[in-house]
Amino acid sequence: EKGADLGFTLSETRVQEDPRLKAFGYSLEQVSLLLGPMAADSKEALGSMGNDAPLACLAQQPRLLYEYFRQLFAQVTNPPIDPIREAVVMSLEAYVGPQGNLLEMSPSQCHRLLLPSPMLSIEEFNALNQISQLHREWNVHTVDITFPKKEGIQGYLDALDRICDQAAEAIEKNDRIIVLSDRATSADRVAVSAVLATGMVHHHLVRNKWRSQVALVVETAEAREVHHMCVLVGYGADAICPYLAIECIMKMAREGLIRKKLTPEQLIDNYKHSLDGGILKVMSKMGISTLQSYKGAQIFEALGIDDSVVDRCFTGTATRIKGMTFELIAQDAFALHEKGYPSRNILEIPGLAETGEYHWRDGGEPHVNDPTSIANIQDAVRTKNDKSYEAYSRSEYEQIKNCTLRGLLDFDFEDRAPVPIDQVEPWTEIVRRFVTGAMSYGSISMESHSTLAVAMNRLGGKSNTGEGGEDPERSLRMDNGDTMRSAIKQIASGRFGVTSAYLADADELQIKMAQGAKPGEGGELPGHKVSGPIARTRHSTPGVGLISPPPHHDIYSIEDLKQLIYDLKCSNPRSRVSVKLVSETGVGIVASGVAKARADHILISGHDGGTGASRWTGIKYAGLPWELGLAETHQTLVLNDLRGRVIVQTDGQLRTGRDVAIAC
C-alpha cells in the first residue's frame, strides 16, 4: 500500500564489531566461508575432506540448537529426487494462513497467502508485517521471544510458557499470522532459540488443534545457513526472515569484504537464491518435491537432545543419544549472549571469534586430524619410526575422545582374560580385510590413486576405484611385480567409466547407494578438474563438469536393486557384490532388504567420510556416526536371521587399531 514504510536502516557498526553477531554465535569462518560465497555466487560454497570436527553434543564451545539435528535421507527404498533433471516437479511455493474446512466448498478456502519461497528479505517481511493495512482481517500478532537477562535460567524457562500463552491469545483474537521475533535482543535481553520457540509453538498449536488457523513466521538473527532454514521449516515455520544475516552481508559489501561488486539488492537476491537451492537439495535427499510436504515433516534425528525437550518441542523426533535439557540450552544461550554483551569489562581479541568449526584453529574446536597427529603419522611412515607412531596413536586417542561417540567407550579389561599372542590371528591376515576409501580418480590425483592401489595390493587388502572409473592399463603388472589395479570397482549413479571390461576386472563390485560425506546427493567434479585423461577414463568431455544424480535412475525399490545385483553377478560371477549405505535411523531395515536382495557385502559408512567436493550443508549435517548405524545394522540382521548371509563393513575417520577393535 502506498505510504507503507518497508525499508530499514543499516547500522554503522562494522561486521567485526557488531555485538549482535557475537551474541548469536557468528564466527569469522561462517561469515567468510558461508555468507560471503552465498551472496557473491548465488550458491553454497563447496567443501571437501569430510567432517572431522566434534559432534555438537561433544563440542567444547556453546553450539546453536540447529546443530544437534541431523538430516535424514532416502536410500534404496523411496529414492532421492534429482533436483536438476526433475526441477519441473520441485517447488518452494506454499499457501500460508488459515485453512478452511476441506469438506466445505466456500470462498473462505481461497483467502490464503501464496509465498513463492519461505525465505523473506527484510522488506518482504515488513510488507507481511503490515499486511493488515491492506487487508483488515489479516491481523499480525508479534510474539517477543526474548526475556530480561537478570531473570537468569529461570527466566528462560518462564519465557517458554509465556510464548505459548501469547500464541494461544493470538488464536483467541482470530489473528492470522503469528510472528516469533528476537529483534528485541540487547545487552539487557536474551533470546530464546528460534528453533526451540518455533517447534514449541507449532506443537502447542497442533496439540490444541489450532495449527491450521494461523501462519507461523520467524524473524530471527540466529538462522543464517541452509541447514538452519531446513530445521525451522521442518518444525513448522511457514516463512523465515534471517534479518541479521542479511544485514551482515550488506555490511560486508560496504566494507569491501565480498569479492564481487554487486548492488545490495543483487547480494540479497543471491543469498535468498542460494538458500532456496539448498532447501530444494535437502528436500530432494528424502524424495520430497514440494515445500508443502516438507514443512512440519520433521525429517531429522536429534543427536544429543534430552527427551524432555524433544517431547515438548520436537514431538516424534527420533533421539537415541540424550544430552541437552532446557537448563543446558539456557546456559548456552547465556554463554553466547555474554560474548556479545559481556557483563563486565574484559580484555579480548577484537572481532569475530575463530571457532575452528570448519578448519583446525589453535584454541578452537578440536579436530580428529590435528596438526600434531598429521606430523607424527607422516614422520612414522617416512622414517619407519615406532615412537612417532606411538605419539600419533596417543594424540589421535585424545582427539577421538573429544570428537566422536566411540571416544566415550572403553574396553572392559578387568573381566577378560588375556589371550596368548600366538593364538591371535597374524597381522598379515588381518590387513587383508582392510580397504581404502572410495575416492575417485579426479577427486584425487592419479599419483595418489595409483599409489594407494599399489600399497593395498602389496598388503593383500583392496583399494577402491571410487565412481570415476579406472584406466584399463592399470591392470597390467609392472616390471617389479606391482600392479596399480583396484580390486574394488564401484558402480555409482553416474555410471562413469562403467563398461563390461571394467566389471569383469574386479574382485568386488560395489553399488554406491549413498556416500558418507553427502548422503542423498550425487558426486560433483568441477569442469576445470576434468582433464583429458580423466575425461577419457570417465567416457566424457574434457572441461565439462560432471554431476552424478542423487538416485540411480534404474533403482526405485529394493526389487530394482536386486535386479542390478543379479546383473552384476552375471557380468562377473567370481566377484562379490557390495552395497554401500550411510548410517541413519532405520538403516538396519534397509540393510535387511539388501541382504534379502542377495548382496554379499554391506558397507555402513559414517557421516564423517571424505569427499572431493560437496556443499557444506551435506558435509556437516547429513548422516549419523557409524557407531549408531553399525550397531543398528548388526542387531537388525541378527533379529531377522540374516547376519550369516552378509559381510558387514564400516568406514568413517577410522584412525588407529583401537577404532578398528571397537568397530569389530
UniProtKB/TrEMBL annotation:
Residues 20-306 form the Glutamate synthase central-N domain. Coiled coil: none annotated. GO terms for molecular function: 3 iron, 4 sulfur cluster binding; glutamate synthase (NADH) activity; metal ion binding. The keyword Metal-binding applies. Pathway: Amino-acid biosynthesis. The keyword Cytoplasm does not apply. It comes from the Eukaryota. Residues 367-663 form the Glutamate synthase domain. Its cofactor is [3Fe-4S] cluster; FMN. GO terms for biological process: ammonia assimilation cycle; glutamate biosynthetic process. Keywords: 3Fe-4S, Amino-acid biosynthesis, Flavoprotein, FMN, Glutamate biosynthesis, Glutamine amidotransferase, Iron, Iron-sulfur, Metal-binding, Oxidoreductase. It holds the Pfam family Glu_syn_central. Belongs to the glutamate synthase family. This is Glutamate synthase-like protein. It comes from Aureobasidium melanogenum. The lineage of its organism: Eukaryota, Fungi, Dikarya, Ascomycota, Pezizomycotina.
